[in-house]
């Protein structure tokens, strides 16, 4: 069942605001909602609602929706079933699962918040380190009463392959250099000059997957990049190599990745993103011993949430006052 946190104050305007997918029940603690609460009824949805019919029924009364990035897709079909909706506030600067064209046609205002960029690269590096030193397994050994069972890998002297050398990829290159790693990079539009500025060597896609000891993905998901890592690329990887994906699940052919992990064609993978989120309870990624899986927490930090919800409150306050939100 979905859980709700209704605000006790009801105003004559009877404006209803819904906060979606607040998994940790922290939205109301990350910003000062007092001005908003004086003018509107705020409901917090702490559990994800996937079924469109159920979602449409739950959201039908709301004039304002606050969405956490791409957790709940707001499609044309769903939006057309929400006649009361006037404003959507989405965290971060981009939300691929929000149909902005439909919003324009339906007269729904859309506003975005600011973003903190440090969370994703920091988690990526944490996952890479955890893979190299078998941290999940060894921590499990201690918790269960055991002791050492694995031998870790050194990072110094190893090669990091970065697919997508944008802001996050560039930050990863900096981390890798600090650990004494060689950095190679590829993306369709990457130039030698940009790669050199980031401290990386531009290589072909095939060379990257064949040569890297760790491959990390940092691309925006689009029709062009969907499935950009498939069976061919995964088969090129070294048997001792690891894949890290904290960007978007569909960048990788999931079936092909499962195959190379189940057959131990590669050493393992660290994954924070998936084709379907939340990840189904019976999914193999939850069970494979050579997978380190986290629940899309790359941007889930206190600093980021305070920016997300602080900006959300500011937008709603402007909207309630009849001021432009952008």
From TrEMBL:
<comment type="similarity">
    <text>Belongs to the D-isomer specific 2-hydroxyacid dehydrogenase family.</text>
</comment>
<dbReference type="InterPro" id="IPR050857">
    <property type="entry name" value="D-2-hydroxyacid_DH"/>
</dbReference>
<keyword id="KW-0520">NAD</keyword>
<feature type="domain" description="D-isomer specific 2-hydroxyacid dehydrogenase catalytic">
    <location>
        <begin position="33"/>
        <end position="325"/>
    </location>
</feature>
<dbReference type="GO" id="GO:0051287">
    <property type="term" value="F:NAD binding"/>
</dbReference>
<keyword id="KW-0028">Amino-acid biosynthesis</keyword>
<dbReference type="InterPro" id="IPR029752">
    <property type="entry name" value="D-isomer_DH_CS1"/>
</dbReference>
<dbReference type="Pfam" id="PF00389">
    <property type="entry name" value="2-Hacid_dh"/>
</dbReference>
<dbReference type="Pfam" id="PF02826">
    <property type="entry name" value="2-Hacid_dh_C"/>
</dbReference>
<keyword id="KW-0560">Oxidoreductase</keyword>
<dbReference type="GO" id="GO:0008652">
    <property type="term" value="P:amino acid biosynthetic process"/>
</dbReference>
<dbReference type="GO" id="GO:0016616">
    <property type="term" value="F:oxidoreductase activity, acting on the CH-OH group of donors, NAD or NADP as acceptor"/>
</dbReference>
<feature type="domain" description="D-isomer specific 2-hydroxyacid dehydrogenase NAD-binding">
    <location>
        <begin position="126"/>
        <end position="298"/>
    </location>
</feature>
<dbReference type="InterPro" id="IPR006139">
    <property type="entry name" value="D-isomer_2_OHA_DH_cat_dom"/>
</dbReference>
<protein>
    <submittedName>
        <fullName>Phosphoglycerate dehydrogenase</fullName>
    </submittedName>
</protein>
<dbReference type="InterPro" id="IPR036291">
    <property type="entry name" value="NAD(P)-bd_dom_sf"/>
</dbReference>
<dbReference type="InterPro" id="IPR006140">
    <property type="entry name" value="D-isomer_DH_NAD-bd"/>
</dbReference>
